[in-house]
Amino acid sequence: MELNPERQALLRRLGHPFTDLRLVEQALTHRSAGQINNERLEFLGDSLVNFFVAEALYARFPNATEGEMSRMRAALVKGETLADIARELKLGDSLILGPGEMKSGGFRRDSILADALEALVAAIYLDAGLEACRQRTLAWYGARLESVVPGDVNKDPKTRLQELLQGRRQPLPRYELVDTSGEAHNQSFTVSCELPAQQLSFRGVGSNRRSAEQAAAAAALSHLSTQR
Amino acid sequence: MELNPERQALLRRLGHPFTDLRLVEQALTHRSAGQINNERLEFLGDSLVNFFVAEALYARFPNATEGEMSRMRAALVKGETLADIARELKLGDSLILGPGEMKSGGFRRDSILADALEALVAAIYLDAGLEACRQRTLAWYGARLESVVPGDVNKDPKTRLQELLQGRRQPLPRYELVDTSGEAHNQSFTVSCELPAQQLSFRGVGSNRRSAEQAAAAAALSHLSTQR
After folding, report:
1. In A, which residues are within 8 Å of B70 by CB distance?
2. Which of A31, A113, A123, B164 could form a disulfide with A86 if both were Cys (CB 3.0 to 4.6 A apart)?
């Protein structure tokens, strides 16, 4: 079995060299496209993502309460967040959709993207075991997981970054659009977030300018939180 | 650190020889009894139980839909089921509760028992890793997991057993109370379920006669499902 170039590129971005390529195919197949689709994998992947995020929060915040961890987890595993990660990985281009979903732009829809991402998590688990799966999943989360803070989950990264810098009496960040790519229906935006006081710049990618800015702010927050 | 005889007996029933006994102590401590309690462990344990049950259902029912697996999982991880397992393990006797909860019979309450069980799952994970934890958790589930069937989760084991035997035109099971133990507030009932056609008898334990009958029926169902 051979994957098309688009899917081969996706595998490189995912960072897992699949032994069983049928798992990739299944994970990318929406129920609108066939009997063998990603719904069962999504069921398993959902429980894996929940566990990895719970474990990461448990280890990272030894003093957080159960309620604080629950709120942080809810923000990290919700469909919107998973769909953002899927967009960063440009999953939409490789989805296998039925004709109806294709026409109506299903490759852009949060729920379809999030489900496919969870299915890919399960696919990696079945292909290579828990440790490989945990590493990949947490790597995809990246700055999102590193920048989350108890009690702050309802504030977006840009707001939190601004408050953090104001608290330090440092100049505010500067955001700049550095790249757009992809076709009209499926564009990808890259934004830089510059911190003048630190003379550092961070990048974020998203399906629109706003979410790219948030991703860049999350990367900056993550860096600053390791500096304290 | 030494555990009292009651807790030592609990560890034997749990089937995991803890290296770090402080984890046991913490897992058994309700928030009413102190600052260091089982709430954080319960958060982590909940995600582990969810994952183990999802994985077991995924492997056992290759043809079940995502919806069927979700319904089966919901029935298996709900507080009532976890509390029943906790009662079979006689967890109530070893709980560490604040004076208020003690007085009002907190050791009998479903939510307190379920939370402590989930906390013990996390404690085993932290003590000995994923594989030991998965084995213990699935062993505690035992017949419950083995007797679950897609589409039938809303029927209780006694009903399903009766329907199965009627479908085979075999005589109905006979239930008999064979033992009661424990103090008045915390009794444990053992019931046998005899299958006349098979000349076999199965046992179940519960906090009341009804739940012990259901557990015995689940054990019988589990046996019959492996015979088909």
Report:
1. 43
2. A113
Residues B177-228 have pLDDT tens digits of 999 988 777 788 899 999 988 889 999 988 888 889 988 998 898 888 766 4
Contacts 24+ apart (CB under 8 A), A4-9: A6/A93, A6/A94, A7/A94, A9/A90
Burial of B7 from C-beta contacts in 10 A (0-12 / 13-18 / 19+): middle
Indicate the SS3 state at residue A38: coil
The one-digit pLDDT tens for each residue of chain A (228 residues) are: 778 888 999 999 999 999 999 999 999 999 999 889 999 999 999 999 999 999 999 999 998 999 899 989 999 999 999 999 999 999 999 999 998 888 888 788 899 999 999 999 999 999 999 999 999 999 999 888 888 888 766 678 888 888 888 888 888 899 999 999 887 777 888 999 999 888 899 999 888 888 899 889 988 988 887 664
Nearest to B51 among A42, A48, A64 (CB): A48
- What CA–CA distance (Å, rounded) separates B60 from B58? 6
Say yes or no: A46 contacts chain B, CB-CB below 8 A: yes
Residues 6+ apart with CB under 8 A from A129: none
| Residue A51 touches partner B, C-beta closer than 8 Å | yes
pTM of the full structure: 0.75
Whether chain A has a CB inside 8 Å of the CB on B66: the answer is yes
* Best residue in A47, A61, A111, A121 for a mutation probing chain B (most B CBs within 10 Å): A47
Least CB-CB distance to B51: which of A51, A58, A70? A51
Question: Residue B174 and residue B200: Cα distance in Å, rounded?
Answer: 11
Quick check: B47 and A43 CB within 8 A?
no
Do the Cβ atoms of A51 and B55 come within 8 Å? no
For the question of residue A118 being annotated catalytic, the response is yes
Element (H, E) at A203: strand A200-206
Of residues B25, B42, B46, B101, which has the active-site annotation? B46
Tokens read off for B10: 């609990």
CB under 8 A, 24+ apart: contacts of B9-17: B9/B90, B10/B89, B10/B90, B10/B91, B10/B93, B10/B94, B13/B89, B13/B90, B14/B89, B14/B120, B14/B124, B14/B136, B14/B140, B15/B136, B15/B139, B16/B124, B16/B127, B16/B128, B16/B132, B16/B136
Length of chain A: 228
B156 flagged as catalytic: no
ipTM comes to: 0.75
Contact A43 B69 (CB under 8 A): yes
